[in-house]
Amino acid sequence: MNVYESLLELIGDRERVSINETVLEHHSKGIAYHAPHAPDVVVFPKTAEEVSRVMAFANEHRIPVTPFGAGTSLEGHVIPVAGGISLDLTLMNNIIDIRPDDFLAIVEPGVTRLQLNEALKRYGLFFPVDPGADATIGGMAATNASGTNCVKYGVMRDQVLGLEVVLADGSVMQTGSLAVKSSAGYDLTGLFVGSEGTLGVFTRLIVRLHGIPEATTAIKVCFPSLEAAAQAAFAVLKAGVGPGKIELVDEATIAAVNAYKKTDYPVKPTLFIELSGSPSSVEDGTKLVNELCEGEGAVSFVVETDSLARAKLWEARHHAAFAIQAAYPGKAMLSTDVCVPLSELPGAIADTRRLVNEQNMTAAIFGHVGDGNYHTVLAFDPNDADEMARIERVHAHIVRYALSRGGTCTGEHGIGIGKRAFLREEKGDAVLWMKRLKQLFDPNGILNPGKIFLP
Amino acid sequence: MNVYESLLELIGDRERVSINETVLEHHSKGIAYHAPHAPDVVVFPKTAEEVSRVMAFANEHRIPVTPFGAGTSLEGHVIPVAGGISLDLTLMNNIIDIRPDDFLAIVEPGVTRLQLNEALKRYGLFFPVDPGADATIGGMAATNASGTNCVKYGVMRDQVLGLEVVLADGSVMQTGSLAVKSSAGYDLTGLFVGSEGTLGVFTRLIVRLHGIPEATTAIKVCFPSLEAAAQAAFAVLKAGVGPGKIELVDEATIAAVNAYKKTDYPVKPTLFIELSGSPSSVEDGTKLVNELCEGEGAVSFVVETDSLARAKLWEARHHAAFAIQAAYPGKAMLSTDVCVPLSELPGAIADTRRLVNEQNMTAAIFGHVGDGNYHTVLAFDPNDADEMARIERVHAHIVRYALSRGGTCTGEHGIGIGKRAFLREEKGDAVLWMKRLKQLFDPNGILNPGKIFLP
């Protein structure tokens, strides 16, 4: 049997079944350090029915299937480590329905968050989850993504009310409903969100929308030390200001952004805070944030309300990830993703900084400190085995510190390839039950094999 | 084998293994219309270890186990329909840890929400889920309860960050972590929340806490018609006021409360709204709510900010369920629990009112209109088969109306016994997967048999 010919017959469109080298290469990797591996063939379905046909075929012939969206995964989720089919869902990018009065949209998995937000603007609504990259809604659901807005609006699992999922055998299941809450049986929607393409392929998602706040203010505060900035973030959260975003960027990252964007931001640990709501609540909140930051020794405090000025103020934060990559051309990137209980955040960040300094590593530290989640981005040469091993030891130390404080190895990036051993450390015997769930939904192990679980 | 003697040996405390008639009777029912059925024996464990021993024993001997908390279930969840062991968790009522800086508490399943809130008061924190009754946290997690506060704070599944669960075979599993978000593997916590005691027994829960808002205002608005009140609720939600609570009570319920509490509330469809946050945001919100309600023809508008006056203003809503019971002594109660997309709420309530009027039924309608969830409480004589059949036809009509609009048969009460057929109608083939999950975690079918699924 020739897999390519068979798939061509199933799909009936030479443009949407590809073994072109460039296409295979594009589907061989995410954007992080993991070793690429090309699929044998890439299929671009346009309907759930086509996804169903591909899955039934793959299941019958035991061919691995790895779903692919925008390709912005940080943990190797989209790498077809066992070859087989890369299922590229970017042509399934229709916004099926926007129900502004219900604060809901129904979308295909390949719709990106910027595409959705562009379509929502005229209704005064927006979709809040923002992982940085212009990821697809399907991919964001697959990793339970979150990002800067989640301290106010919740993570991807909180936004997805229902799914259409094609299962390993090609059958199609509907979960959830258009109601914003339900106690009807087991939460299959929540089980599939965050399953990283290992339990099924999303072909339709019902997502919650939110009203664009009446007033929004952006605040940028510089601190003398990373610890002071982390303490200030903690103070703001404790005071119940309810920020829309609260992000920390360390000195090394600001320096990298300055180099990358030719800017001259003060090279200081910086908090980026967004407040949103009614004009008076935003005004009250800004005053309170100012007092709290001064209490932690803030050295500068800038407030912008105009939308262009706000965007400019946030630039240093938004360019952080790209700036780090640009600062170390040719190097590979590993981003840690631990999340700790809020009170443990200042200590965790201090411990991480101490460690990377000790190791003379060029690390950037930034993240969503509003929910205890921060990233340490480490640049290294993937061909230098010693350096790689050293980086992995640092990663393990950071994860174990977080776990010893009751935290998690991944706040938002997922397990993928890179954190499979940590999952076992974190979850213990619960991983055995996760494996049984995998076995139940995908008995032949064709759905994104090699992810989440160590062989 | 004598089950009672064996359990006595396992627990080693005559006070905590009971076959006393009064105790068996207490464990034979919830608070709704479902036919009671007594367990053979009631066990009151004090530790997870004891729960584990009971489960291992029950699993070996294929004895049904039905978890029991405050007994306030509305769908017969706690009725041991197949006899066996009623596992009363009310002695496991320790608050293990309060971590105010992390906005977390770790509790045993028998802790009630009022008990927890009493302990939290001195930290300026509270646990927001309020289903009305003083239910246990374990029971509330088992049904994914919500109630009045959930429009602002989310449902039970949003509050539970982790669980200790004793599985059918007696093994103990830990899920989740102390981090407020995680993408580490499948969401077992969310799968167990809402599983109605059919997948495992909770012995410990990590729950989120929230800061008590600085300012709170209660608003009571009377309308000329139920439809006008529902439209006003919808207008308030659309305007982005972000109410803390928004509850609708219809005329029949107000009349029942007046009779029950000797009050003289105007017998009009009434909206109860709570706004909370910073003083200025609450003030802005109150003005906006006033304008919106006047736009829908409000006939009275009362605002209270003082905490005693607020409590008094909310009384009519809080007494609703009890007043209905008191108004029809000797009758059984069926409460519908559909949840529809927000825009469908006014139409759904109008349809329900039309139907019960047509049927000359004495029905009260009230509910959490902020998330599209409303209850129709119907009083009837459970010994009158004709009346029972008529009530069930009305229930089926209300559910099918909701399902035809993309809603759910249960917003917060769960499936239990009473909605098993509706679950199948609502979820289709997804129910087969729910059954397979049940089979995976409880192969001998000993955990709360007869619930969620029709035999």
From TrEMBL, chains A, B:
UniProt entry keywords in alphabetical sequence: FAD, Flavoprotein, Oxidoreductase, Transit peptide
FAD-binding PCMH-type domain residues are 34-212
Could you cite one Gene Ontology molecular function of this protein?
D-lactate dehydrogenase (NAD+) activity
Which processes are annotated in GO (biological process)?
lactate catabolic process
Any Pfam family: FAD-oxidase_C
Could you tell me the EC number(s) of this protein? Answer: 1.1.2.4
Give the cofactors, semicolon-separated: FAD
Which class of enzymes does this protein belong to?
Answer: oxidoreductase
Q: Which InterPro entries match?
A: FAD-bd_oxidored_4_C (IPR004113), FAD-bd_PCMH (IPR016166), FAD-bd_PCMH-like_sf (IPR036318), FAD-bd_PCMH_sub2 (IPR016169), FAD-linked_Oxase-like_C (IPR016164), Oxid_FAD_bind_N (IPR006094), Vanillyl_alc_oxidase_C-sub2 (IPR016171)
Q: Which family does it belong to?
A: Belongs to the FAD-binding oxidoreductase/transferase type 4 family.
Q: What is this protein called?
A: D-lactate dehydrogenase (cytochrome)
- This chain's source organism reads Geobacillus kaustophilus (strain HTA426)
> Which lineage ranks, top first, belong to the organism behind this chain?
Bacteria, Bacillati, Bacillota, Bacilli, Bacillales
